[in-house]
Design brief:
Molybdenum Cofactor Biosythetic Enzyme, Chain A; Alpha-Beta Plaits; about 25% strand; five-stranded mixed beta sheet; Maf protein
Length: about 425
Amino acid sequence: MKQTLAEIISIGDEILYGQTLDTNSHWISGALDQIGIKVIRKSTVPDIEAEILTSFQEAEKRADVILITGGLGPTKDDLTKPLLAKYFGVDLVMNQDALNDIEQLFTKANRKMTDLNRMQAELPANCDKITNQLGTAPGMWFKERGKIFVSMPGVPYEMKRMMTDFIIPRLQKELVNYHVVHQMIMTIGIPESSLAEKIRDWEEALPKHLKLAYLPTKNTVKLRITASGPDRDVLKKDIHEQVDKLKPLIEKYVFGFDEGNIEYFIGKMLKEANKTVACAESCTGGFLSHLITSIPGSSAYFKGAVIAYSNEVKHNMLNVDTETLEKHGAVSEEVVIQMAKNVREKLNADVGLSISGVAGPDGGTEEKPVGLIWFGYSDKEKTIAKKYNFSKDRILNIEFGARKALDLLRINLSEK
């Protein structure tokens, strides 16, 4: 059984100039993946006749379904519709249903139609009209030479409505008899190369219909297992069997499954453990607290934070000893231990987290270079500190540092 292949073509100079971000192809890819259609290529072409026609020709050779966005407006630079007519060797003809739709939109908005608006109801003679519930440019569905071409407006909310209401259901009815199932395994605290080494034997033993991908992001590596075939239930079973074999190999690095980020899963862990947390931040300047509170419902487990950027605030607000600051410096094991313990006690939390480091780009020394960050963790049973060296980039150090603090929290919560 052959999987349906799709190609997405985005038309518009504004995308190539960098003036408009192409979010359409990203959304369409996800929507097609959900129904088992595999996107094999995305391309962006300018408002040039030869380039657009060439993109149609090349896509038809590769894909079963060609989805096109953009170029359906009422002005002369909108070339998609006349070029589709040219490509299929047909005329543009007035589509009465499309004209009625446009007239209704203008009547509802109490606006006067122009000749250009009326021309938008002229469609290639061989297409099925796709109603645009939110705009004046109809979509078009072509079935020619065993391939399906679909043309949609470039306006994202108009395109999404067409896809949801008409295109996805029709594709499912006419083409889809294949399924694609994904499983994400979210890891943190281990580089991609080290992770690959740990699971090498498991990866090499994967059945051929299962594919593994490594998706590294800041501080985390997602492992994506993908299975494709005619029976969704069988695919899910096969994936679950492999995940059960994988878990023992990397259990201490796994913080969740499917989509989500470390701050979301930390929130779940704190809720399940009925624990609260407070933060004492220096070099991250509140970014750790921002991550924690970006999750809805975080008030159930987040007590608050002290942004102790200066030594004065560390001493006055967190009771860090002046002698300790003078002897060891703000970026030290001794200071973050006091910060974590004291913020926990001061804000009456179950756990205290602290961060102090050299974010950069200057301020580093040979002993304490840019990227050096100390972390503190404190609960009622223990208080510990960890040291890591990150990058020379200030923003990366702030982001890496905040997420590493969350990982330290995750590890200690998991132990309990």
